[in-house]
Amino acid sequence: MYNSYELNESVRRALDQYSQSMIKIAFTYLKNIADAEEVAQDVFLAYLQKRPVFESSEHEKAWLIRTTINKSKNMLKTGWFKSRNPVPEDLSYLPKEENEVLQAVLALDKKYRIPIHLHYYEGYSIQEIAAIMRTKSATVGTWLARGRLILKEKIGGLEDEKISL
Amino acid sequence: MKKSVYKSAMSRVKTSENFEEATYRKLMSEMEKTTPSKINDQKERVRMNTAKKRTITGWSIGIAACAVLSVSLIATNQTAPKLPGQPPTTITQPPISGKVAVNIDGVITEVSADGKSFKVGDLWVQVTDQTKLGSNEPTATAPSEELLQKEFKVGNIVSGYTSQDVGSGKVTADVIYNNMAPAKEEASAPPVTGKAMVNIDGQITEVSADGKSFKVGDLWVTVTDDTLLGIPGPTAAEPSEELLQKEFKVGNIVSGYTSEDLSTGKVNATRIYNNMAPQQ
Fold this sequence. Notes:
The structure holds 2 protein chains of 2 kinds.
Chain A: H1 4-30, H2 33-50, H3 57-77, H4 79-83, H5 96-107, H6 110-120, H7 126-133, H8 137-155
Helix pairs in contact in A: 1-2, 1-3, 2-3, 5-8, 6-8, 7-8
Chain B: H1 3-12, H2 19-33, H3 36-39, H4 42-79, E1 89-90, E2 102-111, E3 117-120, E4 123-126, E5 132-133, E6 157-162, E7 170-172, E8 175-180, H5 185-188, E9 198-207, E10 213-216, E11 219-222, E12 228-229, E13 253-258, E14 266-268, E15 271-276
Parallel strand pairs in B: 4-7, 5-8, 11-14, 12-15
Antiparallel strand pairs in B: 1-2, 2-3, 2-6, 3-4, 6-8, 9-10, 9-13, 10-11, 13-15
């Protein structure tokens, strides 16, 4: 259990260390920065209210990522989110190549987007992704392979790039 | 797809500059709103809500009960006889504006020559053709002649109300509920018949030679054939020999009662519950 000072400190530290990762994961899901930031705030609120106890900083990060994914899914299911027709996030400020890659990933089905993001951005292995997403490693491997194949067809890629297990 | 390109692209995606600070402030304000005991204990929150609901329900029931009691008290007082010596009561000054009903309630001290006006306290009350006699409430019973006599007499107890200004000292009654003779002293006197029961309870200090009488304190108690033994009642167990011994002995603890006068110092027991040896 935390006292209020420890809680404040742990929240502030988590904000410093993980908020960007969480926003990016939510963005990968929702394709909108404002929504992604809202989800991230909700996750930190849950963190404050539930006061989970973690074994390590990796455990803490995995919990935050998992909660971000769940809350992003929940937001996608809400009626108001489905009913609206938002303007696509303006990523024109990115260099051309980066913009193309990012748009290609965001265009993937969401079941491929998240493993791709967790692997290429966060650097998680298949087993780690499987643990976070609470699914089988083989399934994650399949999602990654299919996602990469689609991306390769769209924008090309490094065929010899290995994915760590 | 090059890993570095995607990572670089995602790293460049712009987010709110003050996200961390704004989030931290929001979290702290949320934390202040919810006390520590409430943050992580949903059950407590439910309990508190339930307790509030119970409190509200309790107050509602209490207020409703008070209202019912008030109504019933008013209804009772309208028909209940007043003691002759009780001073007449009238409500204090009515408000400046609006029309209010002022109770007329008390003993008639004076009656006019025509018998249509009477004095209660300092107030002269006139009864006209417009004055309603008896209660006009839907559930009220028809007034009896005893409770609503036709003639107003000195000493009668009257109750009713007027909507006129009592400050003038003379009003016309809107309604007269009761006009009844005061209750007679005999009627209120307590009954003189009846029998009182007196407990017999204590330790036997002396036993008569025939063993049918014993002394408890200063009282000699005789057990006759009419004396009932044991504890009555459908749920009472049969008296055991241990608790209700056949023989009265010095030192035994007895309990029971008598309906006879104790002042003689000697009574017959009406019932003996227990007659048991003292605990060692």
